[in-house]
Amino acid sequence: MQFAWKGVFPAITTQFTANDGLDMPLFEKSLQAQLDAGVDGLVLGGTLGEASVLTTDEKERLVKFTIDKVKGKVPVILNIAEGSTREALLQSAYAKSWGADGLMLLPPMRYKSDDRETVHYFQTIAAATDLPIMIYNNPVDYRVEVTLDMFGELAASSNINAIKESTRDVSNITRLRNRFGNRYSILCGVDTIALEEMALGADGWVAGLVCAFPAETVAIYRLVKAGRIAEATAIYRWFMPLLELDIHPKLVQYIKLAAAQAGVGAEYVRAPRLSLAGAERERILKIINDGIASRPVLPDYLQIKL
């Protein structure tokens, strides 16, 4: 599938049953909510998808199921987050054979690779596939920063064509544009600065709270890109207490609880994660329920022509 790296790409959660199996009916409900809201792509097996505790067979099932359900309406992207180049190459080959439309690629896990090693890792995987690749640059959580000079080297790989910008430095959008123009598509990867980064020229948003609030997320993106900043900002201000759930080590538990409260998911997670309990659960529930109770009326954002 030919597609553009722009718009809202949910980092979709993996739905589990109470017995720790894949809950495919609920996963389908979650997918449909995203499609109905007008998302532009889907990212499977990311942090929110609990990739580190999924088997290869489960990833295959999720990718093939999603492709079957979306029927070409939006691209299906598989995240690659592995500890070895060999395993990353294997997973990227699987992604191609399963029918994925693209890859989101993290630096090597566990080992903190230096600049030369990181570039070589990305280049090696890019050379082994014809799938388009989005580099996930998140030094806050994964310790490795992909610098401007490294992106300069990676520009020689024609299928590395997008960046998930998660440095949490909004000025990096401007640095990337000044250095590379439109060579790379840029998608914000941090919910709490998404409006700011899109206003500065980011092409889209790899979103987290979209898993619970897809319409509000897509509305903000479309309003910003249509220049209707005041309308987007009003929704964004309502959204902010919820968006802050995305920048916590327990973002998976928090966002899954939000999706459960919104009726589009369940809060079951896979160990070693545990579902929230006690005072922490009550605190997060209050944030979520307060947001649901004051949910804004949205404009007819799906009719906005971009």
Automatic annotation (TrEMBL):
Annotated residues for binding of pyruvate: 206
Gene Ontology biological process: N-acetylneuraminate catabolic process
Key word Lyase present: yes
Gene Ontology cellular component list: cytosol
One Pfam family this sequence matches: DHDPS
Keyword Oxidoreductase on entry: no
GO molecular function: N-acetylneuraminate lyase activity
Regions annotated as coiled coil: none
Record-linked SMART domains: DHDPS
Keywords carried by this UniProt record: Lyase
Active site location: 136 (proton donor/acceptor), 164 (schiff-base intermediate with substrate)
Family, as annotated: Belongs to the DapA family.
Protein name: 4-hydroxy-tetrahydrodipicolinate synthase
Source species of the chain: Hydrobacter penzbergensis
